[in-house]
Amino acid sequence: MSEIEIGRAKRARRAYSFDDIAIVPSRRTRDTEEVSTAWQIDAYRFEIPVVAAPMDSVMSPETAISFGRLGGLGVLNLEGLWTRYSDPQPLLAEVAQLQGVEATRRLQEIYAEPVKAELITERLREIREAGVTVAGSLSPQHTKEFAKTVVDAGVDMFVIRGTTVSAEHVSSQAEPLNLKEFIYELDVPVIVGGCATHQAALHLMRTGAAGVLVGFGGGAAHTTRTVLGIAVPMASAVADVAAARRDYLDESGGRYVHVIADGSIGTSGDLAKAIACGADAVMVGSPFARATDAPGHGFHWGAEAHHALLPRGERVQFDQVGTMEEILFGPSRVADGTMNLVGALKRSMATTGYTEVKEFQRVEVVTA
Q1: Closest to 79 measured CA to CA, from 151, 5, 9, 161
Q2: Which is nearest to 205 in space by CA: 159, 156, 255, 154?
Q3: Is the predicted pLDDT of residue 174 greater than 60, yes or no?
Q4: What separation, in Å, do the N-terminal and C-terminal C-alpha atoms of the chain show?
Q5: Half-sphere exposure (CA, 13 Å, Cβ side) for 360?
Q6: Is 160 within 8 Å of 207 (Cβ atoms)?
C-alpha cells in the first residue's frame, strides 16, 4: 500500500473512516424478508449482529436482559456502578443533572467506590435467571482479581475490554495478565480488545480468544485522540483486522476468530459499513444512549471519562428518540439513521443482493 510523505522524516499510510467509504449496490437485489442478520460465536447464536457496549449509560442488568430478549448480546460493565453500589439509581439520576466540568470531577468521585465481588455475583445471577446469554466485561487491570468471581457466577461470555489491549503488556511494577494462559484455563469463550492493527489483532487471536474487539479512540464519548493523540480510522482498522482473521485461519488450520467493530458506530449506515469492511458484528454504545429506557437518562459516558489521573472521555448528551426496541427494529421517526438499525442493515443487504452477514462482508465499497 502506498504511503504519503508527511515531511522528509515521516511517511504515513492513508487510513479511512466509515464516513470516507460507501457501499456499492450490485446487479441483484432481494426482498428484505429473505435477509438473515443472525450470527454465532462459539456455541451462542444471536438473531442480530449487535453487541451492546458495557457502559453504565446504556447497560444495566435490566437493559441487558431486555437486549438479550430482543436477539442481541448485552454486556454488563462489571467495574461499573452496578457492581460498586447496591442501588446506583440515585447516582445515575445525579450524573444526568451535572453541569460542565463538574461532571468529570463528580464521576471520578463516584467511581472511586471499590468494586464488590458479591455485587458482581448478584448482577450476573439476575441476568442468568432471566434466561438470556450472560456476558460481563472487565478491564485487563482487574481481570485477574475478579475472574474467578465472574466464572463462578455462571457467565457465558467473558469480555476483556480496554481502550487498547495487547497480548504482550510489559510492566516492571506488577505481573501483567498473561492472556494466553488465562484464556486457556477458562471454560467460557473470551472476547478481547480493543486493537486496531493487523499485527496486534493477530497476536490477540493467538491467545485463543473467540472474538476480537476492533477500535481505538473512536467512540462518541472518547477524547483519546485529543488527550493522547492516538486514534485509528475504523474502516481501515476493521479491514486490517479482518485480514488478520484470514491469515490466522490459515495459520491455525481453520480456527475462526470473530471480528467485532467497537467504536464510531453512530448510525445504521456505520453498522452496515463495519460489516462490509469485514466485521462479524458490531459493539454499539451511543445509539442506545438515545433510548428512553437507557439508564443514562440521555447521557452517555465510558470508563475513560472517570479515570482518576488522566480522563480520556467525556459525558455527552443525546436526544432520546425512542425505546431500545424501536432503536433496533423501528418504526423510525427520524431520517438520520439513529433508529431501526437492524431494519436498515437488512435493507442495505437486500439492496446489494446479500442474504447472510458473512456474505455481506464481500460487498464492494468505494472511497467517497
Answers
A1: 161
A2: 255
A3: no
A4: 19
A5: 31
A6: no
3-class DSSP state for residue 142?
Answer: helix
Mean pLDDT of the chain: 93
Domain range for 52 = 3-367
List, for residues 291-307, the tens digit of each pLDDT value.
999 999 999 998 888 88
What is the tens place of the pLDDT at every residue in 249-295? Answer: 999 999 999 999 998 999 999 999 999 999 999 999 999 999 999 99
Cell numbers at 186, concatenated: 477458562
The set of cell numbers assigned to 256 is 475462526
**Could you identify the residue written with the cell 439520576?**
93
**Position 338: which residue type?**
T
CATH of residue 92's domain is 3.20.20.70
Q: What SS3 class is residue 353?
A: coil
Between CA 206 and CA 125 the distance in angstroms is 31
Q: Is the bond leading into 194 cis (omega within 30 degrees of zero)?
A: yes
Q: 0.70 exceeded by the pTM?
A: yes
